[in-house]
Amino acid sequence: MKEKKIKKTSIGGQAVLEGVMMRGKTGVATAVRDSDGKIRLEAERITPPEKQNFFLKLPIIRGAVNFFSSLVMGTKILMRSAEVYGGDDEEPSKFEKWLAKTFKIDVMDVVLFFGVALGLVFSIALFFILPTILGNLFGKAFPDLVLVRNLIEGLIRIAIFVGYILFTSLLKDIRRTYMYHGAEHKTITCYEKGLELTVENVKKCRRVHDRCGTTFMFFVMLVSILVYSVFGALIPALNENIGLRILSRVVLLPLIAGLSYELLKALAKTDSPLVFPLKLPGLLLQKLTTKEPDDGMMEVAIAAFNKVLKMDEDPNEPVCKFVCPEKVSVVTENLKKRFAEANIDASDAEWLVSVASGIKRSELGGDTKLKSSVIDKINELAEKRLTGKPLCYVLGNCDFYGYEIKVDERVLIPRPETEELVSEVLKVVKPENSVLDLCTGSGAIALVINKKSGASVTATDISADALEVAKENFKLFDADVKTALIDLYGDLNEKYDVIVSNPPYIKSAEIGELDDVVKNNEPRLALNGGEDGLDFYRRICSGAKERLNDGGYLFLEVGIGQAEDVKKMLENEFDAEIIKDISGVDRIIKAKLKEA
To answer: What is the residue-averaged pLDDT of the chain?
Structure first.
């Protein structure tokens, strides 16, 4: 494990629920392992030190500001990590809904405000007011020795702090947080040693660090003894009145935090043995607030560190948000908005969420919580749809006559009009009949006819790729359909009772005018019907008589404006009629072979 000498990083961190937050000069990144075991990442930009207000960069003041900003940020990220790991299954109360609607206030902002306020009040009460009261009782024995009284108060404060750490370490969740704290330190140390950030390298590093918040808290207690002693000597009333003394503890806290911050930064810059005695108590306390992490925890810490490192090095490194469990209604509405901006129909969003989540489309307005993994799947599919890829290709299937058949870029997506073609065929076909499906594509027509009628079906196509998809669909639904890789009739010698086809019928010159979704995704081979769009009809009609049994039927789906031309191709040998589709368009040719 060869080490390189590099400059120490300013990146610091914090353990959160099942994760680690890392903060650099220009960004903050938090990695959390969710309930499915996947590492989730969230990153945001912050104002770099060089762009901060000059006043906020002054010594001592910067420490006080950093102390309170870290408290707010830490609480916020802690709450966010809880959302990622556990989600929030509770329905907002009527008051929460009223608050959000009336005052446009995010309830989580309110919770954050009170969380920070209560946390600060609790900390001040436990670590400053209580030690002051207890110190006052013991300090009565030394009424004229201000330093001794403040020293006793400081020792009580340290004892309470250590006791608090020992007590919380008994709690399972807190103990795991201490393990993540260890992972954070070991990762930063690994980087500062110039080692590659791998679990094996991180594992070998120590879990204590000079810039730890635990050491900072010890310095706060140490500096408070000196600050309170100085002010006690300058203002004698503080020693005589317990109320004023308690008030002074609170008022002087920003000054103490600022001085402690400067001390922490100064000592972190040197490894001189002369200052080691000052570092030692904080390092020993870190042995209590950090525990040896497991490999998974180190992976989380590495993910957070790498992200914030990229943000510091590259101003174009993108930010990101956690994917948290969310109500299906919210997920659906958000996706509808995204699709609307891209001029994609809202129904596509509903179908996508329904298929990905397994929730009926009619129930997407409910409060069912979707797991993060499901939302990942929805987002992945949505990104494909936003590229212009047809919904059926995105989902990998489409509904045809009640069957969820497989479709992809190798085949044309079956249209509703083709279902009407199949309905007309099913009106005449019998179980003992034989049926030939030309230009089968996905095999949708052949599949449904076989399953619904029991008739023997043969499906042909010139595209090997298309025929592979058709075979998969036949196997999926256990359909008894023969296949042949040939151009239309090819070398088939058998005769059939019914021939059906939905061949390519778009004019070659008009393909470029089709909707982008169609022309950029669906196979051109399945669209191009030649110069006038009738090439396949001429070939099908000219060979139909030889392949049909007496009294046999030919069914064809045609394009708009093509029905009369195709009917004329059959008038000598067939009794042909035109059937309109549900939209009133001449869509289907039904032709019965004339008796000899």
So the answer is: 88
First to last CA, the chain: 92
Q: In this predicted model, what pLDDT tens digit does every residue of 123-134 receive, in sequence order? A: 778 777 888 888
3-state class of 452 per DSSP?
helix
Q: 3-class DSSP state for residue 49?
A: helix
CA triplet 446, 449, 455: central angle to 5 degrees? 105
- Per-residue pLDDT, 89: 47
- Which candidate, 475, 428, 405, 476, places its Cα nearest to that of 575? 428
CB atoms within 10 A of CB 358: 8
Helices (DSSP H) in 358-395: which residue ranges? 372-386, 391-395
Distance CA 208, CA 203 (A): 13
* CA distance linking residue 317 with residue 306, whole number of Å: 11
CB 30 within 8 A of CB 84: no
**C-alpha closest to that of 111 among 83, 75, 70, 84:** 75
Both tokens of residue 364?
Answer: 């997407």
DSSP letters for 397-424: EEEETTEEEE--TTSPPPPHHHHHHHHH
Maximal CA-CA distance, the chain: 130
Q: Do 385 and 430 contact (CB within 8 A), yes or no? A: no
Contacts of 203 (CB under 8 A, 6+ apart): 186, 295, 298
- Does pLDDT of 240 surpass 60? yes
Residues 208, 276: Cα–Cα separation, whole Å: 14
User: Residue 113, CB half-sphere, CA atoms under 13 Å: how many?
Assistant: 6
Q: What percent of the chain has pLDDT over 90?
A: 57
For residue 495, what are the contacts with CB-CB under 8 A and spacing of at least 6?
A: 434, 547, 548, 549, 552
Strand partners, 562: none
Of 161-165, 332-336, 347-351, 405-409, which range is least confident?
161-165
Model pTM score: 0.70
For 34-65, what is each residue's pLDDT tens digit? 888 899 999 999 988 767 777 877 888 888 88
Q: State yes or no: pLDDT of 96 exceeds 70.
A: no
Q: Is the dihedral of CA 580, 582, 585, 589 positive or negative?
A: negative
Distance CA(518)–CA(242), nearest Å, equals 81
User: How many CB atoms sit inside 10 A of residue 559's CB?
Assistant: 21
| Cα–Cα distance for residue pair 259/216, rounded to 1 Å | 10
Q: pLDDT per residue over 4-14, tens digit each?
A: 545 678 899 99
pLDDT band per the 50, 70, 90 thresholds, residue 88: very low
Per DSSP, the residues of 259-300 read HHHHHHHHHHT---TTTHHHHHHHHHHHHHH-----HHHHHH
Percent of the chain with pLDDT over 70: 91
